[in-house]
């Protein structure tokens, strides 16, 4: 038998080196956008999250964690959380800024409405404490 192929499929959970922290991109969407009185269509809300995630990845493209995250391809982990309203999203952005957490707030134009924020990819244990109070978006 010949040598093993250099690339082979590996189970999702074993992508990182042993002991390495898993990289996650957190996206925080305003939950009130989809509920009355705003009642944005689901696609419009999802688009806000996509814009924010791409903007954060682009803005921090030179960071080694961003490159490593994007190299994972289909194994990338994204967690989508809910901020209840505009004020809570702005408060979170301020907490992240004060703590030196790289992120990008997405503002819908021309309305000027902050709709979402996304962190650049981070090891979960480095940012989890700032996001603990938020629930998964449902």
UniProtKB/TrEMBL annotation:
EC numbers on record: 3.1.1.29
Q: Which reaction does it catalyse?
A: an N-acyl-L-alpha-aminoacyl-tRNA + H2O = an N-acyl-L-amino acid + a tRNA + H(+)
> Which principal EC class is assigned to this enzyme?
hydrolase
Q: Which GO terms describe its molecular function?
A: peptidyl-tRNA hydrolase activity
The transmembrane segments are none
Keywords associated with the record: Hydrolase
Q: Which Gene3D superfamilies match?
A: Bit1
InterPro entries according to UniProt: Pep_tRNA_hydro_II_dom_sf, PTH2, PTRHD1
Name recorded for this polypeptide = peptidyl-tRNA hydrolase
This chain's source organism reads: Pomatostomus ruficeps (Chestnut-crowned babbler)
Q: Which gene encodes it?
A: Ptrhd1
């Amino acid at each position: 038998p010949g040598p093993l192929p250099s690339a082979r499929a590996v189970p999702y959970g074993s992508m990182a080196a042993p002991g390495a922290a898993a990289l996650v991109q957190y996206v925080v969407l305003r939950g009130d956008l989809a509920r009355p009185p705003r009642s944005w269509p689901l696609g419009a809300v999802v688009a806000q999250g996509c814009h924010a995630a791409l903007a954060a990845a682009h803005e921090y493209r030179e960071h080694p964690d961003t490159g490593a995250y994007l190299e994972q391809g289909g194994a990338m982990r994204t967690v989508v959380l809910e901020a209840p309203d505009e004020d809570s999203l702005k408060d979170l952005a301020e907490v992240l800024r004060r703590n030196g957490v790289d992120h990008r707030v997405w503002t819908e134009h021309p309305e000027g409405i902050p709709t979402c924020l996304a962190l650049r990819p981070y090891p979960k244990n480095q940012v989890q404490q700032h996001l603990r109070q938020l629930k998964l978006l449902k």
